[in-house]
Design a protein that fits this description.
The protein is built from 15 helices and 13 strands. By secondary structure, it is an alpha/beta fold. The chain folds into two domains: about 150 residues, Rossmann fold (3-Layer(aba) Sandwich); about 190 residues, Glycogen Phosphorylase B (Rossmann fold, 3-Layer(aba) Sandwich), CATH 3.40.50.2000. A seven-stranded parallel sheet has the order 3-2-1-4-5-6-7, with helices on both faces. It has a six-stranded parallel sheet with strand order 10-9-8-11-12-13, sandwiched between helices.
């Protein structure tokens, strides 16, 4: 007799966010989790989008749960994500006798599309979660945007259940006719326990980092953590910090990351007379919580960014967040709540960003936002993500039980 609910996960590659989720789900009673990875990106080498100095993640992404790397049609496990990659062994793994439900994130690659097809053909419930928003849809071409109202309602409703990740994501699902009965509020996972433990165990190092990065004793550190690409608008951050520093010399910017624009950024910073912004470069996962804790404020300047998880990471450390409205995780019950744990400004409006930076030079405001940031995260942490999975599994089990219950025969 089968005692455990068998959940299959089809996922692109191991990540610092989802590895802890699969591990935590695997500890749940009556739940058996098997993760199928489509490539081993970030395991043998760093994220190529972060530039030549990036390294493989230095935290455990694979321990504590059952997983398998799947080979593509070449007979090898890909080292990077590929849209056209197909894992033929999905055909034998995704069967009704082996799995009671399947989770995947999107339809972005052919293996995901094969997964959805197999679930439909074999009657296996499909659970999905993505970070799409109406805001991020704006990046598509005019032709594609005209096709979205035709394509998306059909495509998104191939899933039996959706785990939403925030206000704008839920608006996106409703806009494309996904019924509320399919949507369960969840969140994208952040291993807050690891972050909090690292910070608590290294308070002296956090203080040293803050002191090392400060250009004066009363400096207020504004952090930027991202891939250095045009979409993330790093120069908007630099220009805003430079202007704010002219009005309040305590303001100082620190940048972490890497990528295509790094050489241009370094040149821009080298020409900055007061050195109001410095580039630290790549910081690996084990040390990243300490740098968040050393910041006073976290800044996101993206032109568009569906649901940047760096905001949640910063909030674990108690960082208030300034975010452009091009990001998709602000709202009444989302990661950033305006004037509660941070500030939202109109994307591309440099003066609005400068004003937000200067507003948070006030110690009392920063402290209030910081306390609220920690409170907000506790309602959107790894355990919240686990609970959303358990809720959808409960619904699937209830529906399955109801379908197996014989209907009462009414005498006539």
């Amino acid at each position: 007799m089968q005692d455990k609910f068998r959940l299959g996960v089809v996922f692109t590659h191991p990540t610092q966010h989802h590895g802890p989720l699969w591990r935590k789900l695997s500890t749940q009673p009556n739940l058996d989790v098997k993760v199928f990875y489509l490539c081993d990106e970030n395991q043998s080498s760093g994220d190529h989008y972060l530039g030549k100095d990036s390294q493989p993640w230095d935290v455990d992404l694979l321990g504590g749960y059952d997983y398998e790397y799947l080979k593509d049609l070449s007979g090898k496990v890909p080292s990077k994500q590929k849209k056209a990659s197909v894992a033929p062994s999905l055909i034998k793994h995704i069967t009704q006798g082996k799995l009671d439900a399947v989770f995947m994130q999107s339809f972005i690659n052919y293996s995901y599309r094969l997964t959805a097809l197999l679930c439909k053909l074999r009657g296996i419930p499909l659970i999905m979660q993505n970070d799409a928003t109406i805001i991020s849809d704006g990046r598509y071409s005019r032709t594609r945007q005209m096709l979205l109202p035709i394509l998306y309602p059909w495509m998104l409703n191939q899933a039996d259940y959706w785990l939403s990740c925030g206000d704008h994501n839920e608006i996106h699902l409703r806009h494309y006719d996904v019924p509320d009965s399919k949507v369960i509020r969840g969140c994208h996972p952040i291993d807050g326990d690891r972050f909090k433990q690292a910070i608590a165990q290294n308070t002296d190092e956090v203080s040293s980092i803050h002191q090392e990065l400060s250009h004066r004793e009363d400096a207020i550190l504004y952090g930027f953590v991202a891939k250095f690409t045009e979409r993330k608008r790093p120069f908007e951050f630099i220009d805003a910090i430079a202007a704010a520093n002219q009005k309040d010399p305590r303001v100082r910017g620190i940048m972490m990351g890497g990528g295509l624009l790094e050489a241009n950024i370094n040149q821009r910073l080298a020409d900055m007379p007061n050195k109001a912004v410095i580039n630290i470069g790549f910081v690996n996962q084990s040390k990243l919580p300490l740098y968040y804790a050393a910041m006073d404020v976290f800044v996101l300047t993206s032109r568009f960014d569906p649901h940047p998880l760096v905001a949640s990471e910063a909030m674990v450390a108690g960082c208030p967040v300034i975010m452009s409205d091009g990001c998709g995780n602000w709202g009444y019950s989302d990661t950033l709540i305006q004037y509660y744990n941070g500030l939202v400004y109109k994307r591309g409006d440099l003066n609005a960003l400068i004003d937000a930076i200067l507003q948070l030079t006030d110690q009392e405001t920063r402290q209030r936002f910081s306390d609220n940031a920690r409170k907000t995260f506790e309602g959107q942490n790894l355990y919240t993500a686990v609970d959303s999975f358990l809720e959808v599994i409960s619904r699937i089990q209830s529906k399955t039980s109801a379908s197996k219950t014989p209907k009462a025969v009414t005498a006539t």
